[in-house]
Structure formats: structure tokens, C-alpha cells
Design goal:
Length: 249
């Protein structure tokens, strides 16, 4: 994480995400039982050695004619939003406007105070202390806070605004914090409720409320390396709210 200042002089925290060797490896079209079709674009990122890739995935990447990748996922799209296989995606795709921590003790995992740090405690300062009971019930209750595996759960953070895009270095500046350790994979997608709101406005014919303010149109396919060459290398989102340093009238 780091900090940035907007054009009004307000400081705010940002998390920098890097788009590394991101390519389209497959266009998914799966019929559903209700006679509709599920459409998605499969994206893979982060090149890795063929020795560290399974044979099944090696064949998949060879069919797509891309280098072996470490992470692969898919994103649902509309039927007209499929991208040619092998297309290199850039950070310019976004318009500005999980990993575990291993086995940890009770102090780090649950915030226990620990035992006394004075005399009489023999190499047990960070232990959990007694966990058992009397002869009745004679067991440890399920769910008791004890040492064990910590982290490793996928977490979703919603509605983080993209404030800056650097297509030269493939960096995305997201306002706020993103959970996880350094170099962990992060999946970025459009906010679901904003997409639903845009679809609702499209049905009502309110075209001016579909895209964010200041954005007139979106190119397709978006985020390609060819598109990044014709746009400025750094694009920042403007400040739409009034300055907090100016008193209200």
C-alpha cells in the first residue's frame, strides 16, 4: 500500500496491483438446462516453467499458443464480449473513475494475552494455557480457540474505485486496502451492483447513466496491448466531490 493526493490536495490510501503476463486462453460457451448459454472468458496470468505445470494444463496452453501460466480463472461476459485467444490484456482495461499464513499460535491467531513474562513461567510465555476441563464433562468443547492453521481463505472486497492506471508498467491503483500478503493473486472484476444498475438504466433508455461521469464510450476489445499504445501511459481519475478544505456556502 501507499498514499496518493488528488487534485484537491486530499491524501488517501491506495493499493497497487500489477497485471503480469495476462492473456486470454479460452472462450467458454456452456449450454444450461434452461436452454440459455453461459458465456465466459478464461484468463491466465504469470508465466511459469513448464516443469511446474501439469501435463493437462500444458496441453491446454499449447492449444491456446501461450506460455504456461500459474493462475487461471474465468470471468462471465455477455455473448458479444468474447476476445480472441492469445490476446494480451493490459492494465488499461480498467477505467479510472489470498494467501494463508501457515500454522500459528493462539496469540497471533486469536489475540491471546499469553502467560506471565515474569519468573516461574518456563518457556511457555506464548502458550495457550489449560484447554481441558474437570472430569465432568471430561472433554474439550468443539470450537475452542486453539493454535492451528490461519488464513488461506479467499476474501472479496467490494466497490474499490480505480483511481489511476499505468499502462507502461501494467499497474492498477485501487483506492483502499486489498487483503492478502505481497505477491498474492488478486482477481479484479466489475462491481456487480453497478453492472445491474447499468443494465436497468439501459432498459429504461437512460444512456447517460450507464457509464461513469466523464466516460463517453468504452472500446472493444478493452485492455489490449494495442489499445495501450494509442492512449496516455498514465490516466488518473478526477475528483468529483467538492473540496473538503472549502467551507460550504
Amino acid at each position: 500500500m501507499t498514499s496518493m493526493w488528488n487534485d484537491q490536495g486530499v491524501k488517501f490510501p491506495v493499493t497497487i496491483l500489477q497485471v503480469e503476463d495476462c492473456q486470454v486462453t479460452m472462450n467458454v460457451k456452456t449450454p444450461r438446462p434452461d436452454h440459455t448459454v453461459y458465456h465466459a472468458v478464461q484468463v491466465s496470468a504469470c508465466n511459469q516453467s513448464p516443469k511446474a505445470t501439469t501435463r493437462q494444463m500444458l496441453g491446454h496452453f499449447q492449444k491456446a499458443r501461450v506460455n504456461p501460466k500459474r493462475y487461471t480463472t474465468e470471468f462471465p461476459v455477455s455473448p458479444d464480449a468474447h476476445i480472441p485467444i492469445g490476446t494480451v490484456l493490459n492494465a488499461i482495461h480498467f477505467v479510472p473513475g489470498h494467501i494463508g499464513k501457515g500454522f500459528q499460535g493462539v496469540m497471533k491467531r486469536w489475540g491471546f494475552h499469553g502467560l506471565a513474562a515474569s519468573h516461574g513461567v518456563s518457556v511457555s510465555h506464548r502458550s495457550a494455557g489449560s484447554t481441558g476441563n474437570h472430569q465432568d464433562p471430561g472433554r474439550v468443547f468443539p470450537g475452542k480457540k486453539m493454535a492451528g492453521r490461519m488464513g488461506g481463505n479467499q476474501v472479496t472486497v467490494k466497490n474499490l474505485a480505480v483511481v489511476r492506471v499505468d499502462s507502461a508498467l501494467n499497474l492498477i491503483y485501487v483506492r483502499g486496502h486489498v487483503p492478502g500478503v505481497d505477491d498474492a493473486p488478486v482477481y479484479v472484476r466489475d462491481a456487480k451492483h453497478l453492472v445491474a444498475l447499468a443494465q436497468h438504466n439501459s432498459v429504461k433508455g437512460q444512456k447517460e447513466k450507464i457509464l461513469p461521469k466523464g466516460v463517453d464510450d468504452l472500446p472493444f476489445p478493452a485492455g489490449t496491448a494495442e489499445l495501450a499504445k494509442v492512449l496516455p501511459p498514465i490516466i488518473e481519475a478526477p475528483s468529483y466531490r467538492r473540496s473538503p478544505f472549502v467551507p460550504p456556502e
